[in-house]
């Protein structure tokens, strides 16, 4: 396993930038995810690490080795593509063995390595199966085994679960994380799925329009987003616009358009917030942090939407000048109806303040 360092890397396509001024260090053995919407630059960055694209400027290093212009087949990387890129006319074992054969390992060594990795991906009895005889999840594990059997320094995964149904995606992401943890290989994962990124990653890089917006642990990015884009993109949130009305010690007061005043903690703010009286401020409130009844930051409103998911009941509450998404976990015994009045509250620590 190796450390990956990206130094001031940009990639141009004609006059347009796919990636701009990316500086990043991925630790050896880390599970690191590139996250963002389509076209944000995450796959372009992955392809530069793989060697399929060369940067327009900047450097890429594996440990201390400069690989910026090194051919892909000389980087000792394993890669799993979105469509798996398996050979349909070959068996499971033949697919897994392909990279070892290219590297001219002996037949005995190839079989030993293939048997071992097949057990690790839970396909022990599938060696003689054809690819078209496997389920989507099994094919995904064959692709993963083929990438890992060469014992790569770095494993790259580009949207590997996007072709699976929701249940299978969950099962497979657990398997990928288990295998990665057991092998300790440095892993870079590309996805637009926030849940996948949050569940699997040691750290996440959020990208937008070719730029890095934020790098941090899942907890840091979820609870302390740097701006409205990250707050909106990671999970669900309510963003309410207001004016910074007062600062009293460690407390902030923000007044909304309908005159409601929210009170929260000064420390629960984005680093970009200047804390100047009269500034425009956006309050980020996660739906699961809203509770029934009275308390800090009490609000009353009318229910306009109800959704039962099994795990939770989700409401949309009209609070006059703004609406709030509310998630009540395991409250199915007290489901309210559309049109009912409701009283809710949000603790001071559950408000997060963002600048304009």
Largest sheet: 6 strands, mixed
Structural Rg? 24 Å
Instruction: Based on Cα principal axes, name the global outline.
Output: globular
Which strands sit side by side, in order, in the main sheet? 6-7-8-3-9-10
In total, the number of strands is: 20
CATH superfamily label of the largest domain = P-loop containing nucleotide triphosphate hydrolases
> Could you say how many structural domains there are in total?
2
- Helix-strand sequence: EEEHEEEHHHEHEHEEHHEEEEEEEEEE
Label the structural class: alpha+beta
Indicate the percent of residues in helices.
Answer: 10-25%
Number of helices: 8
Per CATH, the class of the largest domain reads Alpha Beta
CATH topology of the largest domain, anyone? Rossmann fold
What does this protein look like?
With 356 residues, the chain is an alpha+beta fold. It contains 8 helices and 20 strands. The strands form 4 sheets. Strands 6-7-8-3-9-10 form a 6-stranded mixed sheet, with helices on both faces. A 5-stranded antiparallel sheet has the order 13-12-11-14-20. The mean pLDDT is 91.
